[in-house]
Write a structure and sequence with these properties.
Helices cover 32% and strands 19% of the residues. The protein is an alpha/beta fold. The protein has two domains: 14-68 and 376-416, Urease, subunit C, domain 1; 70-338, Metal-dependent hydrolases (TIM Barrel). It is globular and about 70 Å long. The structure holds zinc ion. Residues 74, 76, 117, 329 line the site of zinc ion (ZN). Zinc ion is lined by residues 74, 76, 117, 329. Residues 65-414 form the Amidohydrolase-related domain. It comes from Conyzicola lurida.
């Protein structure tokens, strides 16, 4: 079974985008004064300007840069700000509308496809597909698998729940100990509509009772998840893995991608290369600044050490040629600054063209959607981003959503700050 292609409403008819500098996302050199033609939401031509073409509508993009719609492979769109008291007190509709705001902000930041790795239910995927709300095309893990007391387990020692676990209509956490638990949980998630299964092979940072160095799901259970998925169409596994040992368990168990990967040994990097495992380094979350007022000095020191180790780990993986996809862990930090990750990827060794490619085609490949998404090429859906920032000169400026002047999804203009459309 091929990966489910998340739909959005498309623009009917023929549309031509003229005059932008095109960076198509394949890694190819930019094309000045480009010409991109879409028919019924699908790109039929992308390249240098041609002679007159008969279309329904032309948009003049002179002075701008035209990029593929980006793919954020790691978000938590159900995470919205609020204390546990506020989360408990609100009506379900308030929460849903806040999530809808995050979906819109993510799309307006230039992310036309996102993979939510815990917390979002398929109702949002369906609403985006139906055009009921603006948002990225969605792939969902729905929930995450870990043992009792592991990264997926929200319960505090006294039995209470933290803020992120008291949101309305949150999916059941994937707390699994026995093989039977794994089988029941994975099959249940597939029945509910999961596009990927997320496992935690290490502990986490924000979860109440575990430590990053703890062992999460063991290799044998990752392998079991892999077998269950193979029986049902072969959806990918992605693994939250903070330690070297956790990455090895995930890769050997059959995970397609590693989230974070902040402590990779050179042998493990070689193992990832051998298996073609993709790294989603979520540098936006590794490097976010903590509030010194609410963080102890010991926690700040621990974090600085983790950041140094994490950056070194990701730099070595990239230098060795491990494929990278853009992921931000947005939700853990505010939604709508997703393309800040592009600048971070350049800081750890990617050339700007390669960062753009990792940010679009890299994610599309990881999601199994690269036949339809991830680059500006004939035959693909017209998911496009128009910016006034030259990404080859100042990619870090794309962090500000206001630098993204237009966004199109399947040829439909969903954001247009300059009234070009
Ligand atoms: Zn996450």
């Amino acid at each position: 079974m091929a990966a489910r292609l998340p739909l959005t409403p498309h623009e009917p008819g023929a549309l031509r985008l003229l005059g932008a500098t095109l960076i198509d996302g394949t890694g190819a050199a930019p094309v000045a004064d480009s010409d991109v033609e879409l028919r019924d939401g699908v790109i039929v031509y992308a390249g240098p300007r041609r002679a007159a073409v008969s279309v329904d509508r032309t948009i003049d993009l002179a002075g701008t840069f035209l990029l593929p719609g980006f793919v954020d492979a790691h978000v938590h769109l159900s995470m919205v700000p609020g204390t546990p008291e506020e989360q408990r007190a609100q009506f379900a509709e308030e929460h849903v509308l806040k999530v809808a705001g995050g979906l819109r902000d993510t799309l307006f930041a230039g992310v036309t496809t996102a993979r939510d790795l815990d917390g979002l239910t398929p109702g949002y995927r369906n609403a985006v597909a139906a055009g009921s709300t603006l948002g990225p095309r969605l792939h969902l893990a729905i929930a995450m698998l870990s043992p009792t007391g592991g990264h997926a387990d929200p319960v505090r020692p006294n039995g209470s729940l933290p803020a992120w676990a008291v949101r309305p209509s949150i999916p059941e956490p994937g707390v699994v100990d026995t093989d039977d638990d794994v089988i029941r949980t994975v099959r249940g998630l597939l029945r509910t509509g999961a596009d990927a299964i997320k496992v935690s092979t290490s502990g986490g940072i924000g979860s109440p009772t575990d430590h990053p160095d703890d062992v999460g799901l063991p290799e044998a259970q990752v392998r079991l998840v892999h077998r269950l998925l193979a029986e049902r169409g072969g959806s990918p596994i992605t693994a939250h893995a903070l330690t070297d040992a956790a990455v090895r368990s995930a890769v050997l168990g059959g995970a397609s991608s590693i989230e974070h990967g902040y402590d990779l040994g050179d042998d493990t990097i070689a193992l990832m290369l051998e298996h073609g495992t993709v790294l989603v380094p979520t540098l936006s979350t590794l490097l976010r600044t903590l509030d010194p007022a609410t963080t102890t000095s010991a926690a700040l020191r621990d974090r600085e050490a983790r950041q140094r180790r994490g950056l070194d780990s990701v730099r070595r993986a990239i230098a060795a040629g491990v494929p990278v996809a853009l992921g931000t862990d947005a939700g853990v930090h505010p939604h709508g600054r997703n393309l800040a990750e592009l600048g971070r990827l350049v800081e750890v060794g990617l050339e700007p063209l390669a960062a753009i490619s990792a940010g679009a085609l890299g994610g599309a490949r990881l999601l199994g959607l690269d036949a339809h998404l991830g680059s500006v090429e004939a035959g693909k859906l017209g998911d496009l981003v128009v910016t006034v920032v030259d990404p080859l000169a100042s990619i870090g400026d794309l962090a500000e959503a206001a630098t993204v002047r237009m966004v199109l999804q399947a040829g439909r203009v969903v954001k247009d700050l300059d009234g070009r459309a």
